[in-house]
Amino acid sequence: MPKEVVIQIEDARVEMEGRTILALDHLEVSRGERVAIIGNSGSGKTTLMRMLKGYVPCQEGKVVVMGDVFPIKDTQKMKTHHRHIGMIHQHFDLIGRETVWQNVYHGRLGYVSLLKSALGICSERDLQICAQAIHEVHLEDKQRRFARTLSGGEQQRVAIARALAQEPTILLADEPVSSLDPALSEDIMDLLVSVCDAYELTLIMSLHLPELARKYADRILAMKNGKIMWDGSSDSLSNDRICEIYEFMGTNGVVNGNGTRASRSAFTWPYGWQGQPLPGG
Amino acid sequence: MTPPDWSVWDVLLTSAVETLQTTIAGTFLGALFAYPLGVLAASNWTPVWVHLPIKAFMAFVRSIPLLLLALLFVSAVGLGPFPGVLALAVHSVGVLGRFVAEEIEATDPKPLLALQGTGASSLQIIQHGLIPQVLPQMVAHLAIRFEMNLRDSTILGLVGAGGLGFYVFLYVKQFQWQKSGVLVLAIIALVFAGEFAAWQVRKRLI
């Protein structure tokens, strides 16, 4: 039986300020796959994830994520789309002055009406889902602490729990361990992979280290200048192959000009709540 | 001014209470308008045709000296503490509103984007993302504003807007230095107490 395809991309192009920062000929991801994207800074890893999340519009081509055909115009539909795709970030992006529990509860906001969230009314089901998510990342004893008082690894675990509370189908992890030390990185990666198995999530992560990609992913995409240069199972990625890939990706540390622009744009203010349409929506 | 003439004790108490009441009413009346205006004046939340005029309005209000505002209100609504309240309120709108706007402009947008990514609506993002980030600073600014308004309101009496300053001025005009000296001491004590209170609030929040 063929596996269900959750992401389908044909000839998609993302342009920013007149420059093409992402050009994908063909990409299909099936449900339950664990995909790692490797490549230099500015190779388009983050842009690809932001496009899948719906933050960055793609100018041409066909992109279908979980049956939603891009671009998604309707705001309500975009909210549902956001809900289906959990995302964790390099710098965790938690609300530091709220507790761990509250941060995990934020994952439920897409399901809760404004009135209920304003009055702090949680349904039994929301409480249960949050408790389960916190249990999954082993933070039960710290759920009343402020998020900013936690260590980096713990904060990333809170971010994972928040994503789980969304009940997503796809989990995007943008450099999930880049700001953590090597030992912690392995812990977080182990956790990430185990929760993805437990919740049957499709995991797409961008990683700097090919070793981590080989260890934790079953499929690896290598990107350069917004293009996919190599796509295959992580078993077939031999050491020779890595050297080959990193050679043509350029190991001299020169950061691609387009890419710098792209990653900077990742931090601009989202205009979704200014009455203007969302990027991509 | 020495020796202090403590026979003005009752005048001191009533006018000190009046000054304190003027300050509290003026600060909170100002804050009531300053917070919504400040949110609208944040350049990353509202389009330019909204935040620019509001910023200009607040700068204009700030540029009018407080005593001049008090004079205007005294001639508009008559003598007493009420014009003092209005003057303080209007001045606070200009100053506090600007603080609020700058605080919002300085918030980290990434956690808010992460909240948007969970499917939260705009108002939910404000409630769960923006307010927790800016609330402590806002309360701290309010405490500082209260402290400064307390200091300012002690001299509002010079133009007939009530409080301690009115009696200081009255006794000075009558050359009753011993009595005015007592009131000046009261002003110093009051300002000191206000500073202490604001410092306590800041210490607890930041």
Give the arrangement of secondary structure elements:
The complex is a heterodimer of chains A (281) and B (206).
Chain A: E1 5-16, E2 19-30, E3 34-39, H1 45-53, E4 60-65, E5 68-69, H2 75-84, E6 85-88, H3 100-105, H4 114-119, H5 124-136, H6 152-165, E7 170-174, H7 182-198, E8 202-207, H8 210-216, E9 219-224, E10 227-233, H9 239-249, H10 257-265
Helix pairs in contact in A: 5-6, 6-7
Chain B: H1 9-40, H2 48-63, H3 66-77, H4 81-105, H5 109-116, H6 122-153, H7 164-173, H8 177-205
Helix pairs in contact in B: 1-4, 1-6, 2-4, 3-4, 4-6, 5-6, 6-8, 7-8
Features:
heterodimer; A: 281 residues; six-stranded mixed beta sheet; 23% strand; B: 206 residues; mainly alpha; MetI-like fold; 8 helices; 80% helix
Description:
- The complex is a heterodimer of chains A (281) and B (206).
- In chain A, strand 7 (170-174), helix 7 (182-198) and strand 8 (202-207) form a beta-alpha-beta unit.
- Chain A has a 6-stranded mixed beta sheet, sandwiched between helices. In chain A, strands 2-1-4-5 form a 4-stranded antiparallel beta sheet, covered by helices on one side.
- Chain A has a domain at 5-86 and 165-274: Rossmann fold (3-Layer(aba) Sandwich), CATH 3.40.50.300.
- Helix content of chain A is 36%, strand content 23%.
- Chain A has 281 residues and is α/β, with parallel strands linked by helices.
- In chain B, 80% of the residues lie in helices and 0% in strands.
- Chain B has 8 helices and no strands.
- Classes of the chains: A alpha/beta (281), B mainly alpha (206).
- The interface between A and B is medium-sized, with 38 and 29 residues.
User: Averaged pLDDT of chain B, please?
Assistant: 88
The name of the CATH topology of chain B is MetI-like fold
How many angstroms does the end-to-end distance of chain B come to?
41 Å
One letter per element, helices H and strands E, the order of chain B comes to: HHHHHHHH
Structural class estimated from helices and strands of chain B: mainly alpha
Which structural class best describes the helix and strand composition of chain A? alpha/beta
CATH topology of the domain at 5-86 and 165-274 in chain A: Rossmann fold
Total helical elements of chain A: 10
Major β-sheet profile of chain A = 6 strands, mixed
- Write the CATH architecture name of chain B: Orthogonal Bundle
Task: From the alpha carbons, calculate the radius of gyration of chain A and give it in angstroms.
Answer: 19 Å
The CATH superfamily of chain B is identified as MetI-like
Question: What's the pLDDT, averaged over the residues of chain A?
Answer: 80
Spatial gap, N to C terminus of chain A: 34 Å
Helix content of chain A: 25-40%
CATH architecture of the domain at 5-86 and 165-274 in chain A: 3-Layer(aba) Sandwich
Number of helices of chain B: 8
The largest β sheet of chain B comes out as:
none
- Rg over alpha carbons of chain B: 20 Å
Spans where pLDDT lies below 50 across 5 or more residues of chain A: 250-281
